[in-house]
Write a structure and sequence with these properties.
With 431 residues, the protein is mainly beta. It has two domains: 42 residues, no CATH class; 358 residues, Neuraminidase. The chain is built from six helices and 28 strands. Strands 4-3-1-28 form a four-stranded antiparallel β-sheet, with no helix packed on it. The radius of gyration is 24 Å and the shape is globular. The relative contact order is 0.12. This is F-box domain-containing protein. InterPro entries: F-box-like_dom_sf, F-box_dom, Kelch-typ_b-propeller, Kelch_1, KMD1-4.
């Protein structure tokens, strides 16, 4: 009798240990994994608290590879935006009113979940305020499930900074400080080449002098390396990269002595030769900045530059230094898009492209957001979840027909008032 009871207890312990090792007790791990990858990313931080096995799973990159493979990964548009202005309490007297001076806008990181059509804001790396540098650039690191914030202005001193922060999306949201750039700069060109090389070039210093300097960051080593300077000063320039191309492009910009007169050329850095080359006649719009108006995409192994200039145009480049830029097609922008202030980013490019049942989705999209005329105003009865302040956000979708060819259409993106302010920088990550 005693032996039977002992055997039963041993069996129960074995079963309990087995269940504790299972992701979901009573379910095969294969089925449990199929359930867990469907949980929206916003709940991943909470999932880590359930048990040790879930924490191990959620914090491992393989979990997010499985989400992409199964078609449950989410498309996130990351936006650097001014925070909404709270309605101040009315001054009690004229003296109190006269003492108040307008403060510079505070910036935050907003995320539009294009898969679930939801908006939320991420507290910044500053532990005291949760803010991020003004006018900082955001660059995605899709191979690592991370987002980088680079440069910009200190929100108190209004001076350019060398700061670099990394937001890790794996297992929730986690900030860390990365190695600083060698030079403080703002309004510069930047872009990621391959999986782990982030380039920055141009912009201006704290005296508003346009810069020629450039540097590159190695994500794996957490180190910056200074590059040879560009041939020209380029403030308010645009960085461009393409899938499968190891070069970094700096489009347009202007010199210190010619502020507001945008150059028609571009410079291209080739890491194979370690040198820059100038490409003429790329940006024939001397009164228009390329910043925010351009994005790069790859369609059928063809690298293209899309420009949003009232009539949206995408252009083709040939893979050599004899670059030809041809307008291939135009798609009219929505009437309520403000073409004087745009921010665009492509969705679903390269290794970020969504796959369902191992087949790529036959759809390419570009997120476009314009200024709605303000930063938004919040009160106790206006919690950022009300009607749109404007119709400044759209998704341009290119759908490939089953019999060949494609069609383009604009879909309005509902934007709560707390997220309706103009984004300074935008990027995309698939997680």
């Amino acid at each position: 009798m005693g032996q039977a009871e002992s055997s039963t207890e041993d069996y129960d312990k074995q079963q309990q240990q087995h269940q504790q090792k299972q992701l979901i007790p009573g379910l095969p791990d294969e089925i449990a994994m199929d359930c867990l990858v469907r949980v929206p990313h916003q709940f991943h931080s909470n999932m880590k608290l359930v048990c040790r096995s879930w924490r191990t799973l959620i914090t491992h990159p393989s979990f997010y590879k499985e989400r992409r493979r199964s078609g449950t990964a989410e498309q996130m548009v990351c936006l650097i935006q001014p925070l909404p202005i709270p309605i101040p309490s009315p001054p009690q007297n004229e003296t109190e009113s006269s003492k108040k001076t307008p403060s510079p806008p505070q910036y935050g990181l907003s995320i539009y979940n294009a898969s679930h059509q939801t908006w939320h804001r991420i507290m910044g790396p500053n532990a005291n305020t949760g803010h991020i540098p003004m006018f900082c650039q955001c660059v995605p690191l899709p191979a690592f499930g991370k987002l980088m914030l680079l440069g910009g202005w200190d929100p108190k001193s209004l001076e350019p900074v060398t700061d670099v922060y990394v937001l890790d999306f794996i297992g929730g949201f986690k900030w860390k400080r990365a190695a600083s750039m060698s030079a403080a700069r703002s309004f510069f060109a930047c872009g990621v080449v391959g999986d782990s090389m982030v380039y920055v070039a141009g912009g201006h210093d704290n005296q508003k002098n346009a810069l020629q300097s450039a540097e590159v960051y190695d994500v794996n080593a957490d180190e910056w390396r200074v590059l040879p300077p560009m041939a020209e000063e380029r403030d308010e320039c645009q960085g461009l990269t393409w899938e499968g191309d190891s070069r970094f492009w700096v489009l347009s910009g202007y010199s210190t002595e010619a502020q507001g007169l945008f150059r028609s050329d571009a410079e291209c850095y080739d890491p194979k030769t370690g040198s820059w080359s100038i490409i003429e006649g790329v940006w024939p719009f001397p009164n228009v900045s390329a910043r925010g108006l351009t994005t790069t995409i790859t369609i059928s192994n063809q690298n293209q530059l899309w420009c949003f200039l009232g009539g949206q145009q995408f252009k083709q480049s040939r893979d050599n230094n004899e670059i030809l830029w041809n307008v291939l097609k135009s798609v009219q922008l929505p009437d309520d898009i403000n073409v004087t202030s745009l921010c665009v980013t492509a969705i679903g490019q390269g290794q970020n492209q969504c796959c369902i049942n191992n087949h790529p989705q036959q759809q390419q999209r570009i997120f476009v957001m314009s200024s709605s005329g303000g930063r938004g105003v919040l009160s106790s009865s206006n919690c950022g979840e009300c009607e749109c302040e404007g119709k400044g956000a759209y998704m341009l979708e290119r759908e490939i027909k089953s019999k060949g060819g494609s069609i383009y259409k604009w879909n309005h993106v509902h934007t709560p008032v707390a997220f309706a302010s103009f984004p300074y920088s935008a990027s995309y990550i698939f997680i």
